[in-house]
Amino acid sequence: MSLKKNELIDTALQLFYQFGIHAVGINEILTESGIAKKTLYNHFKSKDDLIIAAIMKRDNNFTTWFKNKLAEAPAGEIALLNVFHGLDHWFKSEVIPLGEFRGCFFLNASAEYKGINADIYEQCKNHKLQIRALIYEHVKVICSSSLDANELTNTLCILKEGCISTAFVQHDLNSAKTMIPVITNLFEQYRDQ
User: Fold this and answer.
1) Could you tell me if residue 14 is inside a domain?
2) Is pLDDT at 5 greater than 70 in this prediction?
3) What CATH number does the domain containing 126 carry?
4) Cα 21 → chain centroid
5) Domain-embedded: residue 12
């Protein structure tokens, strides 16, 4: 990928995440990046193409970070708890690859585009499904049945999303940390089944 294309994507992602996608125009991205309009349109046919590229970049950044959090600990319970410790650091803007915490970029983007642009919405949906699949792989280590594994995975995904929303909307930056005892109890319940 060319340096200018990458700079456009990085700039767009940073501005979209900070201010919202609809609030940021192409001219703001060009001014911030210092790249000419012709160069932008050599790389992207439209703003929607740039939005999708920004979503894909955020997906890559977040998913890489998420996988690393899981890989830092033994598979199963400890790895999943490590994710919630990682969320705690993200909420406090301590995770450099994710930048300053501004809530969930994918929820924000999908809220702006549901029904307007199916491609943008689908990119956001696919990200959430990919993260769910990563969680499920570690839940399978805990649960003896696929039914229990699906149920626990859904619960953990809802808790994760709730922590992100609570941290952003209510400014409770400790929301992930306070869920760790709850999650530990959940693991005990499913382990005993």
Assistant:
1) no
2) yes
3) 1.10.357.10
4) 16
5) no
Can you give the residue range of the structural domain that contains 140? 47-192
**Res 183: pLDDT:** 97
Please check whether residue 39 lies inside any domain of the structure.
Answer: no
What per-residue confidence (pLDDT) applies to 150? Answer: 97
How many domains does the chain divide into? 1
pLDDT digits (tens, 9 = 90+) for 105-114: 999 999 888 7
The pLDDT-based confidence of 191 (bands split at 50, 70, 90) is: confident
HEC per residue, the chain: CCHHHHHHHHHHHHHHHHHCCCCCCHHHHHHHHCCCHHHHHHHCCCHHHHHHHHHHHHHHHHHHHHHHHHHCCCCCHHHHHHHHHHHHHHHCCCCHHHCCCCCCHHHHHHHHHCCCCHHHHHHHHHHHHHHHHHHHHHHCCCCCCHHHHHHHHHHHHHHHHHHHHHHHHCCCCCHHHHHHHHHHHHHHHHHHC
Contact 124, 109 (CB under 8 A): yes
